[in-house]
Amino acid sequence: MGKEELIKSTRFAKVLRAFFVVLVLVGVSMVIYGLFQTKLVCTHPESRVGGKCCVDRNQNGICDDGECLPEVTYGRNASGHCIEFTNTCLPEGFSQVDLCPKPSCFDKIQNCHDGSCETGIDCGGPCTVKVISTCLDGIKNQDEEDVDCGGSCPPCILKQKTPTCFDGTKNQNETGIDCGGPCPPCLPSCFDGVKNQGEEKVDCGGPCPACITQPENKLVWLFNTSEAVYGVSVSNNASSVLVGSGDDYVYALKNDGSLLWRYKTRGSVISVGVADDGYRALVASEDNYVYSFRNISKVLPTTTYYKRYRLGDISAMDVASNGYGVVAGAAYDGNVTDEGSYREDYLYKLNNHAEVIYSYQTKRDVTSVAISPSGNIISGISDDRLFVNGRVIDMGWLYTFDYLEYIDTSDSAIAVGNTNNVYYVLSRGSEVEWIYNTTKTLDVSISNNNKILVATHKAIMLDGSMNELWSYDIGHPVLKVEVSRSGNVAVAFFDNRYLYVFDGSGVLKWRYFTGDKIISMDISPDDKYIVAGSHRGSVYLFRI
Description:
Blueprint: H1 3-37, E1 46-49, E2 52-55, E3 73-77, E4 82-85, E5 94-97, E6 112-113, E7 116-117, E8 219-224, E9 229-234, E10 241-245, E11 249-253, E12 259-264, E13 269-274, E14 280-285, E15 289-294, E16 307-310, E17 313-319, E18 325-332, E19 343-350, E20 356-361, E21 368-371, E22 378-382, E23 385-388, E24 391-394, H2 396-399, E25 404-409, E26 413-418, E27 421-426, E28 434-437, E29 443-446, E30 452-455, E31 459-462, E32 468-472, E33 478-483, E34 489-494, E35 498-503, E36 508-513, E37 518-523, E38 529-534, E39 538-543
């Protein structure tokens, strides 16, 4: 074979080998393509997405915009917060899936990671970052005289209103509200709290309504604040009586009426709750804080509280027998009260140290809340929705026809009221058990054996099966009701300014004329005492 023929033979062999390699690659590609074209069958609750079976935990047949997620991923909720979750489908309420940073001690979010939870933003728990006290941390520390002012911080500025004759407050040596003293003389009336104009007693007799003979030995004491009493609470044997007033003070009193201590917040005290033992208490104020007090039956310094927690715009609170509480509040950008930020409304469950142990985002204003005596059930109402332990029961227009306004909770059921109805919902249920129609519902209260006392044009007691156990009608509407946990004591305040006290079967035991509108009431857990707060600032302790 010549040289030229040898070169041609070698070239032919190379071409032939290359041809065989191409054939092999094409064959392998066709096999792989055939495998992927095999029909993939996914069983419920899986969804076929891009040739994979993705678990659809929401069972809605849609799995994250056509893309399977890893076992653990992150998403951003409606407020933009980064949340870790394990669903392989996009959960409801999340607008997008994002590769958010893994929770850490540097993500500027108070969250849980590495086996424990932070106690503040990027500090405490798994974080070893030292919290440095500053003049902007919202805490009274260092050598400050008040929160973030005084001492080494800027001077505190007293924000006190200058008393006037038009401020709706009895001050500056006035003899009445905005009258007398430096103001124009007070005109005598049958409601001025003064014995004048020929009255036989204060505001009764003579030109005023006839004086009423009050029951003997029922009123234990009467205590006066300077503003409306929005919250009252009483412990066993009335060892501690807690009072929250529109004058920004919380008061602690003994069963003999003596003042143990008082504490001034920076806003009206809208709700108070004391534990059965009279030792622990929670207080909610319009200054956006919930305060925890300990050993409240002792005389405390006027500036002492055990702990406090900032929860934004607080609208309601209720406290259980063990001192745990539920609070309705609005947070702004992660519990920072900044009116310019996106508002989030929450239900918070607190322990008796005012620490949040559970929260649920409602996305709507919550107007009223309740916690069961055991503290196991928390509930709240907003528009036509009922929230129970993180579940939402949408009452809907079919039921309510109007906003829900009143709520109370036992250890097994919830009573809810609005303009024309009372609704009964089991704590483990998902819908309304029954609806009781009234002409106008003004308040509801439920005992732990599910007796429901309703305030309407009369006082009505129902059982858990909607049977009317008894009613009491005097021709005046009922403004406020309270039933004891045992169901053996029922209290109704009528528009004629009488407080009526009944036993569990509806027998009237006694009544008391207050002459003032009662806006807050509580019955001691041992069924021995009633405490009531009035619109004019009076607090009554009655012996049942």
